[in-house]
Amino acid sequence: MTEHLYNKYVQHMTLEEKIAQLLQLAAPFYDEPGDDSEITGPMEELGIDSNTKRAAGSVLGIAGAEKMMAVQKGHLAGNRLGIPLLFMADIVHGFKTIFPIPLAIGCSWDLKLAEQSAEIAAREAAVSGLHVTFAPMVDLVRDARWGRVMESTGEDTYLNAEFGKAFVQGFQGDNLKDDKSRVAACVKHFAAYGLAEGGRDYNTVDLSERQLREYYLPAYKAAIDAGAEIVMTSFNIVNGIPATANQRLMRGLLRDEWGFDGVVISDWAAIKEVIAHGAAEDDKEAAFKAIHSGVDIDMMTTSYVNHLPELVAEGLVDEAMIDEAVLRILKLKEKLGLFENPMRGADPELEQQIVFSQEHRQVSQRLAEKSSVLLKNENVLPLQADQRVALIGPFADSGDILGWWSWTGSKETAVKLGESMQKVSGDPGNVVIAKGCGIDTLSESDLAEALDAASAAEVIVLALGEASDMSGEGGSRSDIRLPEAQLELVREMKKLGKPLAVVLFNGRPLDLHGIFDVADAVLEAWFPGSEGGAALADILYGKVNPSGRLSMSFPYSVGQIPVYYNAYSTGRPKPEEETDNRYISQYIDIPNEPLLPFGFGLSYTTFAYADFSLSSDTMTATRPLEAKVTVTNTGSQAGTETVQLYIRDMSGETVRPVKELKDFRQVQLSPGESREVVFHIEESQLCYHHSDLSYTSDPGRFTVYVGASSRDTQSAMFRLV
User: Fold this and answer.
1) Sheet strands (E) in 32-128
2) CA-to-CA distance for 438 and 414, rounded, in angstroms?
3) DSSP labels for 335-346?
4) CB 99 within 8 A of CB 360
5) Residue range 565-572: average pLDDT?
6) What confidence score (pLDDT) does residue 41 get?
7) According to the model, what pLDDT value does residue 36 have?
8) Is 67 helix (H, G, I), strand (E, B) or coil?
9) CA distance 577 to 54
């Protein structure tokens, strides 16, 4: 494949044309397709000419079949060799049909539904002219201050890897060339972007290579093994070197060790940012380091265009290195079938039928139902249809429920909570809606209206949270409590002495002081997507039994961060029982444990675990174990339980976490129904990276935990011999 692409295209390209293939330009460069008579606007600002634009290889952020087709047609008319553009965009959790944010999808623990959401996102994006999505993001996250935790599926390496594979399969399917309803997936951000110091976006990352390989790399590797066609570099440093200029990371690990032969793309302007990092003196040196590191596409800088010709002329860059990058880009275009059909799946008529269809919206609603997590419930939920309810708060009648990465979605068409609750209750008069306060403002008139509505109600439901721009890229926060205006609203409502439920809309785990300790019920909705209001109304009224389980811990206080379930014990661990011993690893003013742990979530029914056993108390590399437990629905409603399996290596060559998720099962049970859940434990699940970076297991004792969360478990022990 590569040889014929070289013969047909690369050997006939000028050096400048080759380098232009490595350039990605944003949508504003194509606002007037085909009109290159004047160099103005973004072209002038970036310092490129019309010849470079005509030879560019890809474009970022154009959506809509007609626009894409016009741009592609104009491009082909001006491109000397007729090489089509690649159209890329951030389709992170939906195109027009917006699904819950990825952190919420992680809380569904439903891999099949996650894959289906990616398949639908790809279908809508492809018919609208896109070829590549910058997703999935598989960064491991442990710091809720970082705004981009909303774009990850959580704090666990194993769970992130499983979701990463599911998303890649959903986006790409099995045959990109023939299945024009799919798009190529770009796994990001390589590597360890989620460890930014202080939770501050774009900040420094510093970790050992053993930690990198043990916790941060596996999800990228899983997504690449699932077939992801593209890898995006991260903004941060890795081992002191910016990822975009990190030859050991990109060529040594990604390409040589892992065998990745797809396209590597920089994040936005990341090549030029190597200068700001202090790892390059100027643009020329940044371009030199990035191309030697194996970065194929320069997103939105002219580092390659302006300096690679000079570097080749000086003998500092071998032109064959540029040829390799061009061939990888052309290979992807061929995989997508663009040489035969440059318009690929773009179809304006079909676009009108497929995009935001009722079928797609139903899946969005179902995923929002499964992603919502019931955090607390003291006999308030579900609501009864005939109850008089006051729905109060900035999200009671808001369409800002899509989340940060929903640029093609519409807040105007998002299903609102208030109208959905009025519909589900059967009598709109049973649900009175009042604003109460803004996101961070509280006026006397809004409060008076809320108090009036609440005084006539039997139950108060507060719809609170963060505005969508309070998380996402660039949305780091040092204080992750709700704004004071909303906390004051909660206090005023609590004074009325009525049952009080809170629905939270947010992009990160919050410090819930002033909410969790005051409300009688708390439902975590996250940013639930286009059909969020409908999904939440069905949960609140009991038409749907909540089944979400947290994929990221909720801190007791921001002072604990980073806080995560699979930590090390330390040499002076805090015992479970109370102690007067000061000299242990603890805070003297707050608990060590998070407020709500990984894997936690309530239901409108209850589940009991019994008869937990292992098939043997010894295990070998050739003789695996079975772990069995019987789960019974002991409540009065049908429900879904997520049965979680954790393992601890009691003594390793390096210290091991107190628990590690190794498997899980979701079981649907009717009232009174029991089911035996069986897990298979193999020696490969006991392997880890040792101090010499070898990946093996250690003989010795292991503890197996089975339960409803990382905190609520039963245990048994075995020995690996």
Assistant:
1) 58-60, 86-89
2) 19
3) HTTTTT-TTTT-
4) no
5) 97
6) 56
7) 52
8) helix
9) 70
CA distance 65 to 500: 47
64's tokens: 């809509």
Q: How many other C-beta atoms are found inside a 10 Å radius of the C-beta of residue 282?
A: 13
- Residue entry with tokens 């676009």: 351
List of residues 6+ apart from 495 with CB closer than 8 A? none
Residue 589 falls in the annotated catalytic set: no
Distance CA 218, CA 592 (A): 27
Q: What are phi and psi of 205, to 5 degrees?
A: -125, 130
Helices (H), 410-503: 417-425, 444-455, 484-494
Burial 476-497 (b: 16+ CB within 10 A, else e): bbeebbbbebbbbbbebbbeee
The string of pLDDT tens digits covering residues 82-119 is 999 999 999 999 999 999 999 999 999 999 999 999 99
Whole-angstrom distance, CA of residue 405 vs CA of residue 389:
32
What letter would DSSP give residue 193? Answer: G
Task: Please report the pLDDT score of residue 32 as a whole number.
Answer: 63
Which residues on adjacent β-strands are paired with residue 185?
Answer: 133
Residue type, 603: S
DSSP state of 31: S
CB 273 within 8 A of CB 305: no
Render pLDDT for 280-336 as a digit per residue (tens, 0 to 9).
999 999 999 999 999 999 999 999 999 999 999 999 999 999 999 999 999 999 999
Short-list 566, 713, 676, 666, CA closest to 109: 666
Annotated catalytic residue, options 267, 400, 538, 649: 267
Give the closest residue to 142 by CA, choosing from 684, 657, 705, 617: 657
What single-letter DSSP state applies at residue 641? E
Mean pLDDT value across residues 360-386 = 98
Q: Do β-strands 431-434 and 459-465 pair in parallel, antiparallel, or remain unpaired?
A: unpaired
The two tokens of residue 462 are 């507060």
Q: Is the CA virtual torsion 707, 708, 713, 719 positive or negative?
A: positive
616 CB-near residues (< 8 Å, 6+ apart): 623, 625, 718
Residue 37 scores a pLDDT above 50: no
pLDDT tens track for 466-508: 999 999 999 999 999 999 999 999 999 999 999 999 999 999 9
pLDDT digit string, tens, across residues 421-457: 999 999 999 999 999 999 999 999 999 999 999 999 9
Helix H or strand E encompassing 78: helix 65-78
Q: What tokens does 246 get? A: 């990190």
Number of other residues whose CB lies within 10 A of the CB of residue 241: 17
Beta bridge partners of 676: 630
How far separated are the first and last CA of the chain, in Å rounded?
Answer: 48
Nearest Cα to 434, choosing from 443, 426, 484, 425?
Answer: 443
CB of 685 closer than 8 Å to CB of 624: no
Please tell me the predicted confidence (pLDDT) of residue 248. Answer: 98
